[in-house]
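Issue: ligand-bound run for guanosine-5'-diphosphate - logging full I/O for the record.

Environment: standard queue, default settings, no custom constraints.

Inputs:
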Amino acid sequence: MTADRKLLTSDSSGCTGCGVALQTEDPQKLGYVPESALARTPIICQRCFRIKNYNESSSITLNQDDFLRLLGHVGSTNSLVVNIVDLFDFEGSMISSLARFVGTNPIVLVVNKIDLLPKVTNYNRILNWVQRQAKEAGLKVVEIVLCSAKKNMGFERVIEALDHHRKGRDIYVVGATNVGKSTLINRLIRDYSDLDSELTTSQYPGTTLDLVRIPLDDGSSIIDTPGIVYKHRLTELVSKSDLVKLMPDKVLKPLVFQLNEQQTIFFGGYARFDFVQGERQSFTFYVSNALNPHRTKLERADELYEEHKGVMLAPPTLAELELLPPWTKHAVRIPKGKSIDISISGLGWVKANSQSGADLVVHVPKGVKVSIRESLI
Ligand code: GDP
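Outputs:
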C-alpha cells in the first residue's frame, strides 16, 4: 500500500470484495471507490465492482520496483508466467529483469496488438524478430505467441500455449500498463471458466491487496497482477485524452518521407526528427494516424516550434505541453547499408534503410526511451 493513499477511516473494514483499505482520492490506485458509491452497502472498491459487473480485471498500476517486490514470491511457486508485451511499443513494454524474478518458472511471451501491422505482414518473420529481440534482452521464454486481444486474432494459439505449458499450475499474468492485459484476461476468463453470469467478488477467495486471483475450473488460478508503469514510455506522460491520439487503434499506415539532409519532421509537439547529414533518402514513420507530421527546414525548426507549438504542432495542446518534460536530443548514426528502426517508446518507430548512411537527431520529452533495433517490418 502506498503512503499517499487516503484511507477513508482509520477503522474502515475495507472493501468487502478484496479487503483492501478504501480510498476516494486516486482512481489509478488500489482501493479506489468513487464518493458516490460510498452510500452503497456493502462497499466494494471500483476494481471489484468492475470485476463483478463487467468481468473487467485490474487496472491498478505499480512501478517496476514495487511490482518486483510484490511478486518476489513467484520464484518460489510452481507456476506459469505469462508476460504480455505491446508490439507497438516492444522495447518500452518489455519487463527488464523478469527472468530474474520468476526463478525457474517458464515464461510464455504474448505479443499483443498485431492487428496494427499491415495486412500483408509475414507473421513468421515477426515471430523470428521477437525471438531475437527477447534473446538480446536476456529473456528466456518457452513460447512466443502473437495475438490481438482486441481483434481476437491468435487467441486460440494463446489458449493452446497456456494449456500446453500450464500443467495444472497457476498462471501469473504480468505486463506493463496499456499492453492489453485486461482485454486479454477478460478473454481468458470467458474461455477458461464459467463465471460469466453469476460472477460475484466472493468468488475470489484468494484476492488480496494487489493481486486478483481468478479461480479456474480445475482448482488452479489465473493471477492478474498490477500493470507496471514505465516512465520511459511517452504514453505514461500524457493525459488520457492525448493517450487516445498516441495509441493507434487501426492498422498503421506507413508514412514515407523522401528527405534531403537539413530537413526536419515534427510529430505534433511530441517529437522532432532532424535529418542532419546524408544523401537524399526515404524514412518510413509508423505512428498513430491521429498524429499529423509537419515537414520544415532544419534551420527553421526551432523558430517554427516556438511559434506553433500547441496549435499547428499539436497534440499536445499548449496546456498539456506544459505538463511534459522539456525535449532532449538523441543523436543517431545509421551505418551504411543498414536497415534499422529508431523506436520512440509510446510514439512508434522510424524505419531507416540507408545505402549511404545518415546522421539524425531525435528530440523527445526527457526520459522517453529512444532505441535502435533491427527493422521490424
Ligand atoms: P492494460 O492496461 O494492459 O490492462 O490494457 P487494456 O486491456 O486496458 O488496453 C489498453 C489499450 O490498448 C486500450 O485502449 C485497448 O483498447 C487497447 N488494446 C488492447 N488490446 C489491443 C489489441 O489487441 N490491439 C489494439 N490495437 N489495441 C488493443
